[in-house]
């Protein structure tokens, strides 16, 4: 596997394809360029997905994200492009990408894009009671 920026999103077989489970990935150092000024844009990306037959390989994901450092694109376009590429590579049951862009000109931008596989419906979550913490300070 390369250690240079790359648009190739490698995958591996889902070890539990018969079960819905959530994968949560945080990418706190995403960078791209403003298409108008050429200045860097910074974001924290929050990726949540329920795989079907394939999972994304994390080093490949890192190199993919790194490949945007020299690309200019609007926040909305880049968020949707990343989501589309992840869907094309993994065909997940569900995926949501939340891009929290750092302040630019006094404005914060958050873009959320998601995809749901046709015919897939999520299992209703089990509601469990919450218990007090076992923290000895109880504070």
Automatic annotation (TrEMBL):
Pfam families, A to Z: QueF
Location(s), subcellular: Cytoplasm
The keyword NADP appears for this protein: yes
One example of a Gene Ontology biological process annotation: tRNA queuosine(34) biosynthetic process
E.C. code: 1.7.1.13
Family that this chain belongs to: Belongs to the GTP cyclohydrolase I family. QueF type 1 subfamily.
Listed name of the protein: NADPH-dependent 7-cyano-7-deazaguanine reductase
Organism in which the protein naturally occurs: Parasutterella excrementihominis YIT 11859
Name of the gene: queF
